[in-house]
């Protein structure tokens, strides 16, 4: 069982930056790939980024590539999503999730956090 708690969301102006954190419980954190997804009002949840258990491989949605950076600290059981050059269309609830392997599909992820709101004003 893995419990995930996101933090770091908030309100930011377009062009600004935010860093989201996701703290995980359990002693097997390194065995899990971690992903971030987001869901805007009226839209389906979409993949944002994912990172392998070791942190050696990262994957990004085209919409965030070059602006977002995903990293993890396995000693702290935490993943970080650094978001730069934020746009109004990045506004959404952001969720972190854990999976046995890296994948962009929701269905692969067995554990989910409660989400954190990110609002980007124009």
Task: Tell me what the structure shows.
34% of the residues are buried. The chain has no helices and 11 strands. β4 (33-39) and β5 (46-51) form a beta hairpin. The chain is globular and about 40 Å long. Strands 2, 4, 5, 6, 9, 10 and 11 form a 7-stranded mixed β-sheet that branches. With 122 residues, the protein is mainly beta.
Task: Name the descriptors.
single chain; 122 residues; mainly beta; seven-stranded mixed β-sheet; four-stranded antiparallel β-sheet; 11 strands; globular
In short:
This protein has 122 residues and is mainly β.
Shape: globular
β-strand number: 11
Query: What is the string of helix and strand elements?
Result: EEEEEEEEEEE
Average pLDDT metric: 95
Radius of gyration: 13 Å
Helix count equals 0
Sequence stretches where pLDDT stays below 50 over 5 or more residues: none
Strand count, sense and closure of the main sheet? 7 strands, mixed
Kindly estimate the percentage of residues that lie in beta strands according to DSSP. over 45%
Helix percent band: under 10%
Structural class: mainly beta
Distance between the termini: 40 Å
């Amino acid at each position: 069982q893995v419990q995930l708690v996101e933090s770091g969301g908030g309100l930011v102006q377009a062009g600004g930056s935010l860093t989201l954190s996701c703290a995980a419980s359990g002693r097997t954190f390194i065995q899990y790939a971690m992903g971030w997804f987001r869901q805007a009002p009226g839209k389906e949840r979409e993949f944002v980024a994912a990172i392998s258990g070791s942190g050696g491989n990262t994957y990004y949605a085209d919409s965030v590539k070059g602006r977002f950076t995903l990293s993890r600290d396995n000693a702290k059981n935490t993943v970080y999503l650094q978001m730069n050059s934020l746009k109004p269309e990045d506004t959404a609830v952001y969720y972190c999730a854990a999976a046995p392997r890296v994948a962009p599909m929701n269905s692969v992820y067995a554990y989910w956090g409660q989400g954190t709101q990110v609002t980007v004003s124009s």
